[in-house]
Design goal:
With 563 residues, the chain is α/β, with parallel strands linked by helices. The chain folds into 3 domains: 297 residues, no CATH class; 32 residues, no CATH class; 173 residues, IlvD/EDD C-terminal domain-like (Glucose Oxidase, domain 1, 3-Layer(bba) Sandwich), CATH 3.50.30. Helix 18 links the parallel strand 10 and strand 11. The longest helix is centred in the middle third of the chain and has 20 residues. It starts with 19 loop residues before the first helix and ends in a 15-residue tail after the last helix. Helix 7 crosses helix 18.
Length: 563
């Protein structure tokens, strides 16, 4: 059973006789006096039957609760929202995805504080859900553990590798270009996603799960256990037991989510070629942890000094389950341990160095040695220039080396749908830079992913002959030449609003530059004639989000602390 904590938050509202009303409320649901004497462990469960990455969390939660009970505490489960990027792609729904991050953080905070729970186990798997859960843990600073649902397995073979959910969009471009038969296209629909789980590639979902483990907030090795494996349930049960130990030992979230943990997390994220959305979520988690601002310059410095040691889809054929089989996050952390804060605390109660001591050596096929990496620098890069005075983000790990310097003619679109239609219609040509603007946190609002545009270009055979520049963002599975998070965004009068069809744009990743070949006077003259577009949403949560969200270079956060 272990030692009993000397002070429990929950006991402040459960002592007789003053707090008998609260005890009665619990008893109306079947809780006993014995239950109410134990630590109350919140189980924040984002299970639903909309998101495949969350489809198994109802069962996972049962095993977490088993572990909590085994350790002598009382599980108290509550639900959270979770939205699916895949279903939201390419239409109005994508406006709503990033804004759910703040709602999730707020929901967890409100439930834990309103009911004075002693700790919380956070169940989630996908893109904005995991960052929102980490933000909540950092804000609350109670004992917390993240339990993820795990990745799905790869699908049927397509285009020389195991398919995944993005293969459908790539195939659509091939279909429109006459490179794929309609019957073959329809057959893909049934075979690209053979199991539930977060998408099998290293998109934002699996990136953030790996990053959470690197931060110390997941049990070692647990972030990449496939969703349908029995080990996923055993790990969930272990997490249930371990959260009770954290309560007893007084280890709260900010002992783990601090500057050391966050820097470790980003280094691992860039060492595995993770999603560009790291540049949104890492600063947001740091803001909640109050551990000092993580600027784009900090991220650039960490990425420049971290080797790219693990390569998988979308940069290579292996999927995340393949990564799991060769040691996954612990193996990567052991390999780059000299660059990490080895003494950082984790949810095991042990340090990073202790956790990874027994991790396997590099396999060389997916994970390489630190001295022989895929690249001497990490997977993300921060660009600046007259088109992005406050930075932009790209992912050299997913870009063919021949495109690391790309110059082309601008083809401008005021929104994602117009760009997608033009690509499908064959109106985007080789040598063009597709500029998609008014898709930032405020202008979108909600900073939609330009995933579909990139995949359609790939499908039409233009991935190596074109580029995309946007104030929106990208899915972790995108490949080709792309730059996102352009700040300031077009809706705030950033230079992206001044670009015209036919202008020349240069993307130079080695020199970290994004340049519009128009002089400063010309840009300012254009912006002087610019008129801010009408708001796309004038009511509801998105109208509120558009007013409150910061720019992409500040993590698109909503500030809630008094300065």
């Amino acid at each position: 059973m272990g030692k009993r904590p000397t002070s429990l938050r929950s006991q402040r509202i459960l002592q007789r006789p003053e707090w008998s009303v609260q005890r009665s409320v619990f008893k109306s649901m079947g809780y006993s006096d014995h239950d109410l004497e134990q630590p109350l462990i919140g189980i924040a469960n984002s299970w639903n039957r909309v998101v495949p990455g969350h489809y198994n969390l109802q069962l996972v939660a049962e095993y977490v609760k088993q572990g909590v009970l085994q350790a002598g505490a009382t599980p108290v489960e509550f639900g959270l929202i979770a939205a699916c990027d895949g279903i939201a792609q390419g239409h109005v729904g994508m406006h709503y995805i990033l804004p759910t991050r703040e709602l999730i953080a707020n929901d967890v905070e409100l439930m834990v504080q309103a009911h004075q729970l002693d700790a919380v186990v956070l169940l989630g798997s996908c893109d904005k859900i995991v960052p929102g859960l980490l933000m909540a843990a950092a804000r609350l600073d109670v004992p917390a553990i993240l339990v993820v649902g795990g990745p799905m397995e790869g699908g049927c073979e397509f285009d020389g590798r195991a398919s995944d959910l993005t293969s459908i969009t790539e195939a659509l471009g091939m279909l429109k270009a006459g490179k794929l038969a309609p019957a073959a296209y329809q057959q893909l629909e049934d075979h690209v996603a053979p199991t539930c789980g977060s998408c099998s590639f290293l998109g934002t979902a699996n990136t953030m799960c790996c990053v959470a483990e690197a931060m110390g907030m997941c049990l070692p090795g647990s972030a990449t256990i496939p969703a349908t494996h029995a080990a996923r349930l055993r790990s969930a049960q272990e997490a249930g037991r371990q959260i009770v130990e954290l309560v007893r030992d007084g280890i709260t979230a900010r002992r783990i989510i601090n500057r050391q943990g966050i820097e470790n997390a980003f280094r691992v994220g860039t060492a595995i070629g993770g999603s560009t959305n790291l540049a949104l979520h890492i600063p947001a988690v740091a803001y909640e942890a109050e551990c000092g601002e993580i600027t784009m310059d900090v991220l650039e410095e960490l990425s420049r000094s971290t080797p790219y040691v693990a390569k998988m889809n979308p940069a290579a054929a292996p999927n995340v389950p393949d990564f799991h089989r060769v040691g996954a996050v612990p193996a990567v952390m052991k390999e780059i341990l000299p660059l990490l804060h080895a003494n950082a605390m984790t949810v095991t109660g042990r340090t990073v160095a202790e956790n990874v001591a027994d991790a396997p050596p590099p396999d060389s096929h997916i994970i390489r040695a630190r001295t022989k990496p895929w690249s001497s620098e990490g997977g993300l890069a921060v660009l600046r220039g007259n088109l992005a005075p406050r930075t932009a983000i790209t992912k050299p790990a997913a870009i063919d080396p021949e495109q690391h310097v790309f110059t082309g003619r601008a083809k401008c679109f005021d929104g994602e749908q117009a760009a997608n239609q033009a690509i499908l219609d064959g109106r985007v040509q080789s040598g063009e830079v597709v500029v998609i603007r008014y898709e930032g946190p405020k202008g979108g609002p909600g900073m939609r992913e330009m995933y579909t545009s990139m995949k359609l270009l790939y499908g039409r055979g233009l991935a190596l002959q074109t580029a995309v520049v946007t104030d929106g963002r990208f899915s972790g599975t995108n490949c080709g030449c792309f730059v996102g998070h352009v700040s300031p965004e077009a809706a705030e009068g950033g230079p992206l609003a001044a670009v015209q069809d036919g202008d020349t744009i240069t993307i130079n990743i080695p020199q970290r530059q994004l340049q519009l070949h128009v002089d400063d006077v010309g840009i300012q003259q254009r912006l002087a004639r610019w008129q801010r577009p009408l708001l796309r949403f004038t009511s509801g949560y998105l109208a509120l989000y558009a007013r409150l969200a910061e720019s992409a270079d500040q993590g698109a956060i909503i500030r809630h602390r008094q300065s």
